[in-house]
Design goal:
Helicase, Ruva Protein, domain 3; single chain; 286 residues; 2 domains; five-stranded antiparallel sheet; N-terminal domain of MutM-like DNA repair proteins
């Protein structure tokens, strides 16, 4: 599943490609992807994209001179945006093959066609993602479901520590809770915990203030570093330029089970914690 760095990579690249473009028409190939809303074409035709915002892994498209109209887009497991220009260059997508280059294709769910004859397609093999219309109130409600993001400089490490003290779940479970901390997924939680030398199985209320500060910093750093190189690719993700993210080259514990810890030489272990496959160093992470 794409995590925050992958979604942020797509958001930043789409801003350069589609902001300022006017939608000429909308094609819905599968109603589930737009929550079976028959109004989406009429509502968006003639509208000019003003910006693309993000909270957690939710992208928020806004439109010029339309303060009460938004498009919320979530990639979920296999969703992705493909941008097509006049020369036929395709940007972005999961597990691209030659057949994927001829859009729309069998996994295309929505197509946004602009007045300059470029297009933006939403593909989603598993049909878990969505593109749905929302008003300002609904956007505000959606944003309230997410906690603060550690990638920002104003993230409050003291607040983070105080909140951890009230949780009796494993610290990994706490970090995966998007209503507590937004944006951290399974990959980056494992990496942040390794950097902070905290066991994923440690109860959150047992994390010390010093460890909490290290964990807050590590959580932000690992995601910012991943964004800088386009995210992490395993099976499906490619960015809107058609490139694999390459943070895989920098992973220290995730997917490294059986290998030696780069810090102490102990064998990296894999277990299950918070219902997820979890990677850690049994010596470094107490």
């Amino acid at each position: 599943m794409p995590e925050l760095p992958e979604v942020e990579t797509v958001r930043l690249q789409l801003k350069h490609k589609v902001v300022g473009k006017t939608i000429d028409s909308v094609e819905v190939f599968h109603g589930k992807s737009v929550e079976n809303n028959p109004e989406i074409e009429d509502k968006l035709s003639g509208k000019t994209i003003g910006d693309i915002d993000r909270v957690g892994k939710l992208m928020i498209f806004s439109f010029k001179k339309e303060p009460d109209l938004f498009l919320l887009a979530h990639l979920k497991m296999t969703g992705q945006f493909f941008y097509v220009d006049m020369s036929g260059v395709v940007g972005g997508g999961h597990s691209m093959t030659e057949a994927d280059m001829d859009l729309p294709m069998k996994h295309t769910r929505v197509g946004y066609h602009f007045t300059d004859h470029t297009s933006l397609y939403f593909n989603d093999m598993r049909l878990f993602g969505y593109n749905k219309l929302a008003n300002a109130e609904e956007v505000a409600i959606a944003k309230k479901k997410f906690g603060p993001e550690p990638i920002y400089e104003d993230f409050d490490a003291d607040w983070f520590y105080e909140k951890l003290k009230k949780r009796k779940t494993p610290v990994k479970a706490a970090l995966l809770d998007q209503s507590f901390i937004a944006g951290l997924g399974n990959i980056y939680v494992d990496e942040a915990l390794w950097r902070a030398k905290v066991s994923p199985m440690r109860r959150a209320d047992k994390v010390t203030k010093k460890e909490a500060a290290a964990l807050a910093a590590a959580s932000g750093d690992v995601m910012k570093e991943s964004i800088a190189v386009g995210g992490t690719t395993f099976q499906h993700f490619k960015d809107t330029g058609g490139e694999n993210g390459n943070f895989t080259d920098y992973l220290q514990v995730f997917g490294q089970q059986g290998k030696k810890c780069s810090r102490c030489g102990t064998e990296i272990k894999k277990t299950r914690c918070a219902g997820r496959g979890t990677h850690y160093c049994p010596k470094c992470q107490k």
